[in-house]
Design goal:
Helix content is about 50%, strand content about 10%. The protein is an alpha+beta fold. The protein has three domains: about 45 residues, no CATH class; about 300 residues, no CATH class; about 180 residues, no CATH class. It has a six-stranded mixed barrel. The chain is elongated. The termini are far apart.
Length: about 625
């Protein structure tokens, strides 16, 4: 079909049901979806063999878990779906991470709104005399309420506008900042659109209304007599204002604990994965991919080209070992086949599924995977030699407990028996998160179909320093073959942790913002409390209280607010971390060390935020404080 472009997905190949090709096509102008569907199905059916002559492909190497007698080979089928509605896999993969990020943004917004509410409370308190005079002159409570609420909404609208402008300016910068040098892995369009603008406008409006209600209601419930007598223009005796401010601060501390706990869990997860052993030596290995089939090489000629390239690469200075495989280790992809072992009866059909990797000679020596029994794959394991395989230890322990598997047989995909020539140590294949799976290593030279391969070069110096030499060597063999995906093995592993790194960075940013906002709120409340208690502090000092005692009194009050906020935040954090437990590694969501560290950090930062008001209170001149009203 014109305009159809196939691509190869990075998915597992497990049985015929999951061995599929994905084709993307864009409809021509004026062609309906129903017409395209009908014509595509007709064209596909015309190209199929009849059901009676269909047979299993001899070179597929794949079979169902059950015997073929009960599961005859089915003809291929075409499944068509609208691309705009067929992203179920992406939705399943990213729905929870995006929901967690959305929750983080929402918590930061709540903490910021609590700060705004505190500032509005203090502002209307300072305007107490003005509001009392206006009410005494006949202004209605409803009119004053509308005015104060309008001011709050206007403030929120200005903040939303400024934030939107900042988003337009900083969208690309944020992607670059969090891509960690792998911008190609973060293909996100973060430019605000009409939907984002609408959500921002609605959020700003709701923020202005919800967090402006309490200050407006308190301001319009003024005691006219007390307010008109107050010389400093504020309410002389309204402890409710301070109590509400303290409640908001405690809520801020609790929400900050939730964000900081999540951030620390993600950071520790990333650290656990980065320091996790993969079963091979990741240092000083250069990787690059090459697909000589795109230049016209096929069959034995293709394999011969790869063999010659491996031999030439081994002659380069600073190269200690060279090998190749059809997939890189810790690359995110894998192949999975069903195996049959004579004399072994599987307990479940799924028990026969094993990982498979096609490799070249000296693969295990290059990757630093130890040989435990027998030998590994050598150049003599070519298409004319008897078929052989190497298995890892977990497969040997499972299928051959207490028995030396070297010399025994296994079959893959219903094909001929393959002799096991050696056993190697366990090495992780797909990702660092997985435990070592039962794995069979096959010589790529003995495989019926060979396409693109990844070359592994162990070097004595920095791997990237050899890139130019490798490129020149490949170009001398065939100038039409470019090197693809040039990177080191350490970079390959780092790329596999891209999602964990993004979450650690974003959650740390949210946690830091929450911590700063909570400290600002705590500082504001304590500064207001000190100013309101200036007369009381003056009396205490006139009666003999020392400055250190006043300092400790204010810090004690600050610490109490932080402790209560932490007590509120602990159960919230325990509940919230249950949402991210599937994204953690080497940690429990209720990890006590993480909770204790977060609580201690919040307490110390809170005391630091309250130190400035406390020091100001300790520096009050009693003669001035006694005259303060």
């Amino acid at each position: 079909m014109p305009g159809v472009e196939p691509f190869y997905p990075r998915t597992s190949w497990k049985g015929d049901a999951d061995w599929r090709w994905n084709v993307i096509a864009r409809l021509k102008p004026g062609v309906s979806w129903q017409r395209a569907r009908a014509e595509s199905e007709l064209l596909f059916q015309q190209g199929l063999p009849s059901a009676g002559t269909a047979s299993r492909p001899a070179d597929s190497g794949l079979q169902h878990s059950q015997p073929e007698a009960s599961h005859p080979y089915e003809l291929p089928r075409l499944e068509l779906a609208d691309a705009s509605k067929s992203l179920a896999l992406l939705r399943r993969q990213f729905s929870r991470p995006l929901f967690i990020l959305w929750m983080g943004v929402g918590l930061v917004l709540l903490i910021a709104c609590a700060n705004v509410a505190n500032l509005l409370l203090e502002r209307v308190t300072a305007r107490g005399r003005e509001i009392a005079v206006r009410m005494a002159l006949g202004a209605g409570r409803r009119r004053l309420f509308r005015q104060l609420l309008t001011e709050s909404i206007l403030l929120a609208a200005l903040g939303g506008t400024a934030g939107t402008a900042l988003a337009y300016w900083a969208d690309r910068w944020l992607v670059l900042a969090f891509s960690s040098g792998y911008l190609e892995l973060l293909r996100l369009d973060v430019r605000p659109d009409l939907l984002v603008l609408g959500f921002t406008a609605l959020a700003s409006l709701l923020t202005g209304v919800l967090f402006g209600l309490a200050p407006a209601l308190r301001a319009t419930r003024v005691d006219l007599t007390s307010a008109l007598k107050a010389r400093n223009g504020s309410f002389a005796s309204k402890p409710g204002h301070l109590r509400l401010g303290k409640l908001l601060v405690m809520a801020q501390v609790g929400l900050s604990l939730v964000l900081l706990t999540g951030a620390l869990l993600f950071v520790r997860t990333l650290a656990n994965l980065e320091h996790l052993g993969a079963g091979f030596d990741r240092r000083n290995i250069l990787l690059f991919s090459l697909d000589a089939s795109t230049a016209g090489y096929r069959g034995d000629r293709l394999k011969g080209f790869y063999q010659e390239l491996q031999e030439r690469l081994a002659t380069l200075p600073e190269v200690l070992n060279v090998s190749l495989s059809n997939m890189p280790l810790i690359g995110g992809g894998y192949m999975e086949y069903d195996i049959t072992i004579p004399g072994y009866t599987p307990r479940t059909p799924e028990e026969t599924a094993v990982r498979v990797l096609d490799v070249g000679p000296r693969f295990f020596e290059t990757m630093g995977i130890r040989t435990l029994l027998g030998r590994t794959i050598e150049p003599r394991d070519n298409p004319r030699a008897p078929k052989v395989a190497v298995i890892n230890r977990v497969l040997a322990d499972h299928y051959f407990p207490g028995i030396n598997p070297v010399g025994r047989k296994l079959a893959m995909g219903g094909q001929d028996l393959i002799e096991i020539m050696g056993v190697v140590a366990n090495a992780k294949y797909q990702s660092l998160r997985e435990s070592a799976e039962p794995t069979v290593y096959l010589p790529y030279l003995q495989q019926p179909v060979v396409l693109g391969m990844t070359f592994e070069l162990r070097t004595a110096a920095k791997p990237l320093a050899l890139v130019s030499s490798v490129r020149r060597l490949v170009q001398s063999m065939d100038p039409n073959l470019p090197l693809l995906q040039v990177r080191t093995q350490e970079e390959q592993i780092s790329r596999s942790l891209f999602e964990e790194r993004i979450f650690a960075q974003l959650s740390s940013l949210f946690g830091l913002l929450a911590l700063v906002l909570a400290c600002i709120g705590l500082y504001g409340v304590m500064a207001y409390a000190v100013r309101r208690r200036t007369n009381e502090i003056g009396i205490r000092m006139a009666l003999g209280a020392e400055r250190g005692q006043v300092l400790r009194m204010i810090l004690k009050e600050t610490g109490l607010l932080a402790v209560v906020g932490i007590a509120i935040g602990v159960p919230l954090a325990l509940a919230a971390t249950q949402l991210v437990k599937s994204m953690l590694f080497g940690l429990k969501p209720y990890d006590p060390l993480t909770l204790a560290g977060t609580a201690l950090l919040l307490l110390l930062v809170s005391l630091a935020a309250g130190y400035v008001p406390a020091r100001r209170a300790a520096s009050v001149d009693p003669s001035v404080a006694l005259r303060y009203e």
